[in-house]
Amino acid sequence: MLKRILLGLAGLIVLLVVVVVGRTLMVPVAAPVEAGAAGSVDAERAARRLAEAVRFETISHQRGAAADDLARSDAAMTGFRDWLGATYPAFTAAASREIFGGHSLLYTWAGTDASLDPVLLMSHLDVVPIAPGTEDQWEQAPFAGTIADGYVWGRGTIDTKASLVAMVEAADMLAAQGFQPTRTILFAFGHDEEIGGGTGNKVIAETLQQRGVKLHWVNDEGGVIGHGLLPGVTTPVAMIGVAEKGSISLDIVAYSKGGHSSMPSPAAQTAIGRLARALERIGEAPFEARVDGATRGMIESLAPAVPFMQRMVYANLWLFEPVVRRVMAGSPASAAQLQTTIAPTIVEGGNKENVLPPQARAVVNFRIHPRDNAESIIEHVREAVDDPEVSIEPLDGIREASTVSNVEGDGYRLLTQVIGESFPGTIVAPYLVVGGTDSRHYLPITDNVFRFIPIHMGPEDMARFHGTNERVSVANMGEAVAFYIRLMEALNATEGQ
Ligand SMILES: [Zn+2]
């Protein structure tokens, strides 16, 4: 009897091994990297134009900024707009332009077939300021538009004037050759993306909706071509954001009687004690974490690019999902891909050392995973805190998570194809964007939002993004222009799909 059970067990184990190894071997291994062909594109010219674009200090300021800062940005935005017209005459003649919120631009390059829903390509005009005190650490002045050592240096190169210049350069070259899109191509360049897009892309999206426009698909900033950004992955990976997280901040206020500190209630019943306990309870009640949706798609897409043992795990998530989940939970960046995150950001209470404050307050920011929503988060937190003396209310500015775009549809397929042609040997992977982009404003008029720019980034480039010594290589500008040319041509080739 025992022997039979053991034999049965051994049989099962053999079967399991066969399935796991079989699934692993079925994963096609990545081809070696070849140089991308930029075709007839003039990389130097594209780089020079990016350098010119950098010289417009198109910083977007929060409300309440100094009047002369606002005026300077205003002039820079106008200058940039005029520069686009002067630099790209074929494109700006072929496409009609509308201005929203003062400076956001919507170009419509009308297609020959008006029955097809337009595609929308996005970028933004604005850039973030230079962090005070870091000016001296720039190898090239941030707004000088310097080309040196094979790079265009300056604020906004990565985020995201490189993609803007590349797509307009591509469209201008095509327009000059008499190319006309079959499907209308819209270009939306917001002027306030870095401060929420409330007067730019939000208004453009509302206007399009009022006009009854539905978008076939949208591509915005988000993912890049990563080099060495993922553990075990040596091939370049083009990350396409297929969903983005939402955000909600909860105002958590604990109440108590107050009074003199010489005769306190037990510490746990003071306002500060209650607040501390509430925060501890929230921290001890993490949100559901799973390798599913966009994150699962990412892991599965990476399988061809990782060593055999790792591939065995990635190709068999049906079995190893808990293992992958545990490894990913180990670092904040990958943990954010799995679940709604919890970040206490403000705490305040009391103003005198010998007075018990009648209330103490904290703000906790949650980045909402697409499987959760604002309402479920409030409920989860109230349940976890479980204290009638603690009020929990949402602050303004709730942003729900986006839907997850279809990776089987036209948009993703086309991007994957063009990435393959432009950057041979690159693996394409979907992923969940943990920050916010302006593309969310278009979710009411499309089911397919993708977030990818054809810019290479390695581990040491991550700090340049919104940081010091932001730069994009001259060669990369050539590749990026070629990418957008192929994308627009491929759109025509797949006309009617
Ligand atoms: Zn950006």
In short:
With 497 residues, the protein is α+β, with helices and mostly antiparallel strands. It is built from 14 helices and 17 strands.
Describe this protein's structure.
This protein has helices at residues 2-26, 43-54, 67-87, 89-94, 157-176, 201-210, 271-283, 293-302, 308-314, 317-329, 332-335, 374-385, 410-422, 474-493, and strands at residues 96-100, 104-109, 119-124, 147-148, 151-153, 185-190, 217-226, 237-244, 246-255, 259-260, 341-349, 355-356, 359-368, 390-394, 427-433, 449-457, 471-473. The chain is of the alpha+beta class. It has 2 domains: 43-244 and 401-493, Aminopeptidase, CATH 3.40.630.10; 246-394, Alpha-Beta Plaits (2-Layer Sandwich). The strands form 4 sheets. Strands 1, 2, 3, 6, 7, 8, 15 and 16 form an 8-stranded mixed beta sheet that branches. Helix 1 packs across helix 9 (308-314) and helix 13 (410-422) crosses helix 14. The structure holds zinc ion.
Describe the structure using short key phrases.
about 500 residues, single chain, 14 helices, Alpha-Beta Plaits, 2 domains, eight-stranded mixed β-sheet, alpha+beta, binds zinc ion, about 35% helix, four-stranded antiparallel β-sheet, Aminopeptidase
